[in-house]
Specification:
Length: about 250
């Protein structure tokens, strides 16, 4: 029977030393080796900081977070203007519209305080026409309400203008000389179809009647170039002016 005794020699330093008593020396050597490995394992367990692989500290652990939600841009009218800004009788009135956060808009037209038209504006054409003819004194208002993609309305923008009296139109449609008489026809029209006052400035004796007929008796010795100015004024005082010149010559015999 073989007996084993483990002895630690205290004066050999911090290491372990083993001895074997018995008849089986190989077995004693193996046991010492296993004991040494066991002691090393214990030292490593208590002295080496623990390490983890494939993980991070709790403070550094990645988290899956939802993206910050942003509220949709509110529908609004960024620009609204009427063109022309001072419409006259016969003007073609347009509303120019710019929007942000909007997919469409409702455009309401009013004439003299009464709604006359409702247009669904898609935001692409850039403007909306006012279809009604204008006369002096008419008050036109437009109200634009934008809508976002969810059809929520934004603030309504408004503009208004007053149509003013337009000046008359004048043009020379015919002129001729018959013998010693000069004849011309001036066409005068008022956009409001009101009566016009016609006057003329030219060589002495030249005249114009209310229907625009110009007459002048040419003297026997008259020659040269003459400037003519015709004016038309309506009852509001709006005036149109037409100027032209004529050349009178003599044939030598």
């Amino acid at each position: 029977m073989t007996s084993l005794i483990l002895r630690v020699d205290s004066h050999t330093g911090p290491g372990l030393r083993s001895g074997v008593r018995g008849s089986n020396g190989t077995l004693g050597y193996s046991l010492n080796l296993w004991l040494l490995l066991f002691a090393c394992l214990i030292c490593l367990t208590f002295q080496t900081p623990s390490a983890s692989f494939g993980q991070t500290d709790a403070d550094d652990e990645p988290e899956l977070t939802a993206p910050e939600s942003t509220a949709p841009e509110a529908a609004q009218v960024t620009e609204l203007k009427l063109d022309p800004e001072r419409p006259e009788t016969g003007s073609r009135l347009k509303a120019f519209i710019k929007m942000s956060g909007a997919v469409r808009a409702e455009v309401r037209w009013s004439l003299n305080g009464e709604e006359v038209d409702l247009v669904d504006y898609d935001g692409l054409s850039g403007h909306v026409d006012f279809a009604k003819p204008l006369r002096a004194g008419d008050k036109v208002a437009v109200a634009v309400t934008p809508f976002d993609v969810s059809q929520a309305p934004g603030n309504t923008a408004t503009r208004e203008v007053v149509c003013i009296n337009a000046a008359p139109n004048l043009r020379l449609v015919k002129q001729e000389i018959v013998g010693y008489n000069y004849r011309a026809q001036v066409e005068a029209k008022d956009p409001e179809n009101e009566p016009l006052e016609l006057t003329i400035e030219g060589p002495p004796g030249m005249a114009i009647d209310p229907k625009g007929h110009v007459s002048w008796t040419i003297g026997t010795q008259t020659s040269g170039q003459f400037q003519i100015k015709v004016s038309a004024k309506d009852k509001e005082g709006a005036t149109a002016i037409l100027t032209y010149s004529i050349q009178i010559g003599r044939t030598r015999r």
